[in-house]
Design goal:
Distance between the termini: 50 Å
Helix content: 25-40%
Bound molecules: ligand FSX
Order of helices and strands: HHHEHHEHEEEHEHHEHHHHHHH
Number of helices: 16
Shape: globular
Number of strands: 7
Strand order of the largest sheet: 2-1-3-6-7
Structural class: alpha/beta
Radius of gyration: 21 Å
CATH topology of the largest domain: Rossmann fold
Oligomer: single chain
């Protein structure tokens, strides 16, 4: 595909109608809280958007983020946004390997210096000079430091890249257990280990795929990241808790709580808070966006929220009080008042 092919040309070639495209733009603009006028601007901007160069680096992770992104299903416009991108380098998806792959990365960075989007998934090991994870003989830390310099925007996809995630687990309770010294990308910018660039955290383990594509769509149109919260996440997606958006919220307000995962209350939509649900302190769109093309989300299928889009969620989940309530040490306001 040519680099200068616009997004609307690409969609037409893939058989997507203008009506479907406008419907998508309206929904996306509404997510970002844009005015009707701005909705039109978003449609025009996205239609004319050229293919940006994307360099995608994968470090310490489980590949769940890429799997989330490439999940099978109907070819939605969200998915086509990702097809439209010029994925010049992606460890997991590219066919090239070895020196040919590394040369392709260097070529893409040089040709698009200052303009490419750098996507990172996985945390970065920093202990022992970073030798815990290397690619083509280069530590993840050194590769990240090099790639960040020419990036117009950095998107940390997944809780590992955003906050350290599972590879950094037990950093709170037992610091020595984070043996690889796993850290998130933004933290490395704060400590001066890599240069500072505009960065967006798209957290979640894994993140909702539409949140990834929506964030990229916003950048394509505006040339900048959307408004962010204190954790550098797009407010449009992370501005409310899972609890506030949960389909079981009416039960919470009525004081109806499931007391076991297999009791009648759990089956009848009672609130899962007393079974350890982390929805009240977790900011994400899972209940409204849902997964697998809007099919379901954890509380819908009877499982409490794990809090995976929050920093240190794995360690928080380990702490249980005498009554067995998991995570109580980190939930001083339990039960929440909203
Ligand atoms: Fe982490 Fe992603 Fe969880 Fe896995 O790349 S956020 S372990 S879903 O794969 O980084």
């Amino acid at each position: 595909m040519p680099h200068d092919e616009t997004f609307i040309d690409f969609l037409m070639r893939r058989g997507v109608s203008r009506r479907s495209f406008l419907t998508y733009c309206t929904a996306t603009a509404a997510t970002f809280g844009l005015s009707a006028e701005a909705e039109i601007g978003m449609a025009a901007g996205l239609a004319a958007a050229p293919r940006p160069s994307i360099i995608w680096l994968s470090f310490q992770e489980c590949t769940g983020c890429t799997e989330s992104l490439t999940r099978s299903g109907a070819p939605t416009i969200e998915a086509l946004i990702l097809d439209h991108l010029s994925l010049d380098y992606h460890h997991t998806l590219q066919a090239a390997s070895g020196e040919a792959a590394e040369q392709a990365r260097r070529n893409a960075m040089e040709a698009n210096y200052g303009r490419y989007v750098l996507v990172v998934d996985g945390s970065v090991p920093t202990a022992d000079g970073g030798v815990w994870s290397t690619i083509a003989g280069t530590t993840n830390l050194a590769m990240l430091a090099e790639a960040v310099r020419g990036a117009a925007l950095v998107i940390a996809v997944g809780t590992c890249a955003a906050f350290g995630g599972v590879p950094a687990a037990a950093a709170i309770a037992a610091p020595n257990l984070n043996q690889s010294g796993a850290r998130g990308v933004a933290e490395l910018m704060e400590t001066g280990d890599i240069e500072t660039r505009p960065i967006v955290n798209v957290s979640g383990c894994p993140p909702v795929p539409e949140v990834i594509s929506g964030t990229i769509a916003y950048f394509l149109v505006n040339g900048a990241s959307p408004p962010l919260d204190a954790s550098r996440r797009p407010i449009a997606y992370y501005g409310k808790t899972v609890h506030e958006r949960c389909t079981r919220l009416p039960s919470y307000k009525a004081g109806r709580f499931a007391l076991a995962f297999d009791d009648a209350g759990a089956r009848n939509g009672y609130c899962l808070l007393q079974l350890g649900c982390k929805g009240p302190l977790t900011y994400n769109v899972c209940p409204t966006q849902r997964w697998n093309l809007g099919t379901s989300f954890p509380m819908h299928s009877g499982h409490g929220c794990l809090g995976c889009s929050e920093a240190d969620f794995w360690d928080r989940a380990l702490a249980a009080d005498a009554s067995g309530f998991i995570g109580s040490a980190f939930y001083p306001d339990f039960p929440p008042q909203t």
